[in-house]
Amino acid sequence: MDELEFRRTLYADPNCTDDGVLAAIADDPKKQAFYKELKQLDKKMQNASQVKVPDDLVHKLIMRQTMQSHKSNKTRHRIQLAMAASVAFVVGVSFTMWQQSNLLDLSKQAIAHVHYEGGYALDAQENVSLQQVNAKLAKFGGEFSEDIGRVYYANFCDFENVRSLHMVVGGENGKVSVFIVPHDDAYLAEGSSHDPRYNSQAIDLKRASIIVVGEEGANINKMKEQLQRKIQFSA
What is the pLDDT of residue 100? Predict the structure, then answer.
């Protein structure tokens, strides 16, 4: 199993038990470290998505309202209505928080993708033509109308189970990673993130999101604006 197939398989399923993957891990200490780190990241993301509403929250609200219901028959009816509204509000807010917590932040995920892919894409020295890039981008109904500079790498990747386009493009101060991810309701499509090494910015367009990742000092905002201006999507 080559390096690219190994990484793509684990990106798609960090808990993969395929014999080929397990054999590759057993034979290569670097693959073992990559596998361990990827599983830790997957576990952290799963833990971050769990928003637990206190078990007794609804019961406390009900008890508070019920204790006041003895005052009069008229107020009892009003309290019951208020109680129902309160419970509905709590459930609604909790569900909204749960949904938001489960949204995948593209800007953060892009940085994680660059880290765990290592130098495979960033070290590439290909000269991918605009025509070749557009041939891949056409899968998402898009194309670049103008030249975007030197493209060192362009290939499809698995971005949290969504087939996306991963490029490495020459920027003002070195290479930057670019991800073009088709729309998905589970994604937080716009925003920015950073860690000690990389900064990222994500922007939501007509049919996809563009995320640009660069090291400290790279003008990723300029690259993001350039790509946004030059990309077009079919109706």
Answer: 41
